[in-house]
Design goal:
The complex is a heterodimer of chains A (139) and B (128). Chain A is mainly α and 139 residues long. Chain A contains 6 helices and no strands. Helix content of chain A is 79%, strand content 0%.
């Protein structure tokens, strides 16, 4: 017999059971998108900081503005901005999905999977569409 | 917005949900989310439409009343939503004594960034 089990105060001494860690679950669309909504929110927080840097550079004058614009237009800047664009659209589409759920709609399993794939497809289309439109305007 | 309890009187009397301001923060996150849908899409569209523009074009753009108004609303909604979202993440993963300090830090940082952003817009609009 485990001595811990017979001791009357053992409950407070023994480590309490923990819920299973996330590592033991096979990734599913539902869990991946849930985590992605948080991650893209964090990335978008950094984008918001970038927005303020861009605006304050503009307020400082044309020289500071051109430095920031140059950084954005560089290859590294474009790659970062592309990532920020995708994070923004994924968070936006995922957010709409959450708002629909909050109105107690689309909570059947089939609908949850359908809206999950729709969120991924819509974010990809919006990201690529935005960059193609930007390249057409910018030449 | 964050302090108003939007539970039904029955739910509040029965002690359902948050004991403090949780339901207020939950509502504010969704209200700012809905406000940010048109504001952020408008901003994305404007940025795309002004690809490759120089400083003069930027100043002309932001000086129109519609643009400066929407930019300021975007900054307020964005940093309100950011502060609420980051607080939820902190509350889920940080359980030590720094949680309180971290939440205050997030709120102060978001407030400062929103103020700097709004003042930057106003400086370009009203600057010489």
């Amino acid at each position: 017999v485990d001595p811990d089990r017979t001791h009357p105060t053992s409950l407070s001494v023994r480590t309490r059971p923990l819920s299973p860690n996330i590592q033991i679950y096979r990734p599913q669309l539902t869990s991946v998108l849930s985590i992605a909504n948080r991650l893209t929110g964090l990335v978008s927080s950094l984008s918001a900081v970038g927005l303020v840097i861009w605006l304050s550079a503009a307020a400082s004058g044309p020289r500071a503005f051109s430095v920031v614009q140059g950084a954005i237009a560089s290859w590294g800047g474009r790659i970062v901005l592309f990532g920020c664009t995708f994070a923004f659209f994924l968070h936006l589409c995922g957010g709409i999905r959450h708002l629909v759920w909050d109105s107690v709609h689309g909570l059947k399993l089939r609908a949850i999977y359908a809206s999950g794939w729709l969120v991924i497809a819509a974010s990809l289309v919006l990201t690529l569409g935005a960059w193609v439109a930007s390249l057409i305007v910018g030449g | 917005l964050s302090r108003k309890d939007r539970r039904s009187p029955l739910a509040a009397a029965a002690g359902l949900g948050s004991a403090r301001y949780g339901s207020g923060a939950w509502w504010a996150q969704r209200v700012t989310a809905i406000a940010l849908l048109p504001l952020s899409l408008w901003f994305a569209g404007e940025i795309i439409a002004h690809t490759g523009s120089d400083y003069g074009a930027f100043v002309d753009w932001i000086r129109t009343p519609l643009t400066s108004s929407l930019m300021i609303l975007l900054l307020i909604g964005l940093f309100y939503h950011t502060a609420l979202g980051l607080q939820v993440v902190l509350e889920d993963y940080v359980h030590s004594g720094i949680k309180f300090a971290a939440i205050i830090g997030i709120r102060v940082t978001c407030l400062v960034l929103a103020v700097v952003g709004v003042l930057s817009v106003l400086r370009v609009v009203f600057g010489g």
